[in-house]
Every structure is written in C-alpha cells, then in structure tokens.
Amino acid sequence: MIKDFLPINGTDYVELYVGNAKQSALYYQYTFGFELIAYAGPETGVKDRASYVLKQEKIRLVLTSPLSVDHPINAHIKQHGDGVKVLALWVDDAKTSWKETTTRGAISVEAPKTIQDQYGEVRVASIQTYGDTIHTFVERKNYQGPFLPGYHPRKSSYPSQAIGLKYIDHCVGNVALGEMNHWVNFYEQVMGFKLLLTFDDKDISTEYSALMSKVVSNGNGYIKFPINEPAEGKKKSQIEEYLDFYGGAGVQHIAIATQDIIHTVGELRKRGVEFLEVPASYYDDLLDRVGKIDEDLTTLKALNILVDRDEEGYLLQIFTKPVQDRPTLFFEIIQRKGATSFGKGNFKALFEAIEREQQLRGNL
C-alpha cells in the first residue's frame, strides 16, 4: 500500500474575503444558524483587518474585511466581490505538508510558521491553488483556544439557532476552459489526491450550454474537490458567467451536509434564503427514477429538494441562489443516505434552473 504523504484530518476552516464582515457575520448567523465564536480586529491588536469566526458542528467559516483602502484584501474584493480566499486543511504536521507539496511543485504562499498565545501554539503554512485561492495547512494539536492565536473568544448578542448543518461535504472550483486537467493533475501529483469521478459535456448539458467536471479526493475521502470548466455550447454556460463576474477561477460553491435536509431547508427558507427552483414536473416520475425513499414526496416537492440514486444508496440535495449580488458563490445543502456520488441524475434539471436565472440576469 502506498503511503499517503499528505494525510488530512478534514477541513479546518473556509475563509471568505468580504466587503463588510460585521454584516456578513450577522447574515450567516441568522440565515444559516452559525454561532459567533471568535474575533480578531483592532480591539485584539490586529490593526489592518477584522475577522469573525463562525461555527456550526464541524464547520468553521471565517469572514474577513480590510480596514484601509490600500490593504491587499481590497484588491481581492474589488476583483472578485465576496468570495473564498482560503480552503484550510487540518493536518498533524503543517511543516511536512508544506514541504511535501512544495517539493512536488506547489507554489508557496507562506512558509511554515508557529503562532502562539496563552492557549498554546499553532503551526501554519500555505500554498497556491487555482485563481487567487490558497490552501493553508493548520496543525493545532498543541492549541486549546477558540480558533487561532490572535483571535479572542467572542459571542454575539444575537441568539443564533443552528439548523442541523454538520460538516463540509465538498467544495467546487470553477476554472477557465482548458485548465481543468491542469488542476486535476495538480491535486493528483502535488497533493496525492485520486481522481474519483469524471463528467463530460454529455453528462452535464442542456440545449444551450455545457460543462465538464472531474472530482478529486484525498486518501481518506474527507476532502473532495470537484473542478469544473466550461464546454462548448450555443450560449454562455454557468461556468463562463461565474468566471466573468468573479474575475477568474475560484470556489463556485460549498456543499454542506445535514442529517435532516427537510428541517434544514425548511429553516433556511423561513429565514429568507433563496434556492434554485426546478419545475413541478421534475417530481412526476421521481420515484420511478430513484426507487423507494424514506421521505414524503409531497414535502420534498414543496421544498423543491432533489433526489438521486447511485449503487450505494441515494442522496437529497438543493442549491441556493448566489449569496451576493454578483452571480458567483452559492451553497449546496446535501443529505447522503448511502450515496457517495454527486447527483448526476439531477444535472440537467439543475442546469436548466441555473439557465433560467442567467436569462433573468441577461447573461445566458
């Protein structure tokens, strides 16, 4: 058996650079039920930015805004709008993770360093991936603090209510035409990931547009990264629209797992989160396509939740509309009941739903 040179325990955190972290933090607390657990900013000795750390079960979101017009983070926000900057990976040894990947060709963003405070120490190191996105390796076995050194515990006066979100299932990246295989090779050769699935334009297409996608996964399967690129079509695909408005490659969506999608989506809808809508006709032959399921079909139809089955079982999924005005980052809510795939049977319905939104925006 080949030794895994980059063992990963899971996703440590996802950091978004946003225009107004204070307001964004409240949005994610109210709508998605995250709890504010830590903060870094001028009051904690960090003079150039403000960061709010939100948590729900195993998920940590960090929302960061710069405090001056000439801060480098502002350049990121100007180009991309609100978007994912850091996909942080929880490892046992950050220095070795950085060394193994950089010797295989990864571009270093930050060499290994140790940061400390009264709660202990954390070692971190970062490498470049697609677009302006980076991976930060986080080694925290000698740390007992709320998040990272430099962050102070913080609770919001807003009483957030969790909605059953458990962990990050996968994060999807969009790259330009011709770049998908380059980044798949990067994850295979530089990070030791394996190619899990391949979807071509015959799998993911409509009358007007198409995309291609490959899914890579680390050794234990805790980290899964689908990589998308546009394919030739009559009109502009959702990937091209994303690349235009994001200003390059980046994280398209974050898929978050739940153990009760009906409860989770019901709460999100009550709190004002908007979702892509598929036609009622999608449900006419659903049970013929996917077989017996535990959930009530009428409830799934009312919430517009999609279902797909593979050899291992079935899954339920739904996609939000973009969570900012630029049609870029959105979220997927997914519940797996044995299925290990990504909802191939729903691709056409989802693509058509996205195209309807593109048409409304005048971007199809």
Characterize the structure shown.
By secondary structure, the protein is α+β, with helices and mostly antiparallel strands. It has 2 domains: 10-153, Roll (2,3-Dihydroxybiphenyl 1,2-Dioxygenase, domain 1); 165-361, 2,3-Dihydroxybiphenyl 1,2-Dioxygenase, domain 1 (Roll). The protein has helices at residues 21-32, 72-80, 94-102, 180-189, 238-246, 261-270, 286-290, 297-303, 347-361, and strands spanning 10-17, 35-40, 49-56, 59-66, 83-90, 108-117, 120-128, 134-139, 152-153, 165-174, 194-199, 210-217, 224-231, 250-258, 306-310, 313-319, 330-337. The radius of gyration is 20 Å and the shape is globular. The termini are far apart. The mean pLDDT is 93.
Q: What is the residue-mean pLDDT, rounded to a whole number?
A: 93
CATH architecture of the largest domain: Roll
Low-confidence stretches: none
Radius of gyration: 20 Å
Q: How far apart lie the N and C ends? A: 48 Å
- Major sheet attributes: 9 strands, mixed
Overall spatial form? globular
What is the succession of H and E elements?
Answer: EHEEEHEHEEEEEHEEEHEHHHEEEH
Query: What percent of residues are in strands?
Result: 25-35%
**Total strand segments:** 17
Counting helices, strands and paired strands, the structural category is alpha+beta
Write the CATH homologous superfamily of the largest domain: 2,3-Dihydroxybiphenyl 1,2-Dioxygenase, domain 1
What's the CATH C level of the largest domain?
Alpha Beta
- Structurally, how many domains make up the residues? 2
Helix content: 10-25%
Total number of helices: 9
At the fold tier of CATH, the topology name of the largest domain is 2,3-Dihydroxybiphenyl 1,2-Dioxygenase, domain 1
Q: What strand line-up does the widest sheet have? A: 6-7-8-5-1-4-3-2-9
